[in-house]
Design a protein that fits this description.
By secondary structure, the chain is α+β, with helices and mostly antiparallel strands. Helices cover 21% and strands 23% of the residues. A nine-stranded antiparallel β-sheet has the order 1-2-3-11-8-13-6-5-4. A four-stranded antiparallel β-sheet has the order 7-12-9-10, covered by helices on one side.
Length: 298
């Protein structure tokens, strides 16, 4: 069932219909039908590019225990901050990139700077990892394969976690996926971490996506959900180990990251290359805890 849904939404000929995709940005019908439930959280001041929590719209998806959807709680300036960090800074050493063992870059070259001159280079980056690096072959983390975790994203994720009672959460590993309009991410579960009870946090920026989330086996038919720029997904409890995938990236008609943006000449020159990249790309940051509470190392 999961593979069939993935192929359906990935198809270019024939094109799929999107009538069954949950659009939580238009929640009224979903609320009325009991598909989602609005969740109240305590008031907290704006931090890390996020609005005050009293302005957040938070929903739980009732058929997937522990799946929490936060409808874009970022300010436009906050979105631009995290987009810039993902492209300019989180793509640098000592972070690991999918292009490290290729000849796309020389050892002393910077992906973002070189990519601004060469579209082949800019489009070559698919992922970056930091903290405990995910080993794509063994699916095992190790003490010998890690680098420092950036403090700003660690603190931002902890702040979000605390709003939902995940006070012990510590960001220890992250993967940033860089998608283009023809990109997909096949079905998988995230089970490499020793602590599988800690939630997984997913932050999305740029173009929209169809996100599929099924059950703990590929036999269960998945839900399809629209993910737009700024949306946050938290996978906790049973949903933490559900199969999930991204079969399709969809061009947005609302560049929310540019709201309230004053096009001053100096600012525009700084932001323009980032905005150009976002015009056909989606960035997803997923953050997880590796160790159990009180555990100091693997």
């Amino acid at each position: 069932m999961f593979r069939e849904s993935f192929k359906y939404y990935k198809s270019k000929d024939p094109l799929p219909t999107f009538e069954d995709v949950l659009n939580i940005h238009k929640p009224k019908l979903l609320l009325n039908n009991g598909i989602i439930t609005k969740l109240a959280i305590n008031k907290s001041s704006p931090q890390y590019g996020l609005r005050s929590t009293e302005d957040w719209e938070v929903y739980v998806i009732n058929s997937r225990n522990g799946l929490i959807f936060i409808k874009n709680p970022f300010t436009p300036h906050g979105q631009r901050y995290w987009i810039t960090r993902c492209l300019k800074d989180y793509s640098k050493k000592p972070h690991k990139l999918n292009i490290d063992n290729t000849n796309i870059l020389k050892s002393d070259e910077n992906w973002w700077e070189e990519g601004r001159k060469n579209k082949k280079i800019i489009d070559s980056l698919r992922w970056s990892t930091f903290g405990y690096h995910h080993d794509w072959d063994t699916k095992i983390y190790s003490e010998e394969n890690k680098c420092p975790f950036p403090e700003d994203i660690k603190n931002m994720t902890k702040y979000v976690a605390e709003q939902f009672g995940f006070d012990d959460f510590t960001a220890e590993a992250a993967i940033i996926n860089y998608y283009h309009l023809d990109s997909t991410l096949s079905g998988h579960t995230d089970h490499s971490e020793q602590n599988l009870e800690a939630p997984l946090f997913s932050f999305s920026f740029g173009q929209s996506a169809i996100f599929l989330i099924g059950g703990e086996t590929i036999d269960e038919k998945p839900l399809a959900i629209y993910i737009h720029s700024g949306d946050i997904l938290i996978m906790s409890k049973e949903s933490r180990l559900c199969y999930h995938a991204v079969p399709r990236i969809i061009k947005t008609n609302y560049e929310v990251w540019n709201d309230e943006y004053q096009m001053e000449n100096s600012d525009f020159k700084h932001w323009e290359p980032f905005n150009n990249y976002l015009s056909y790309s989606r960035i997803n940051i997923n953050v997880r805890q590796v160790l159990n509470k009180g555990q100091l190392k693997l």
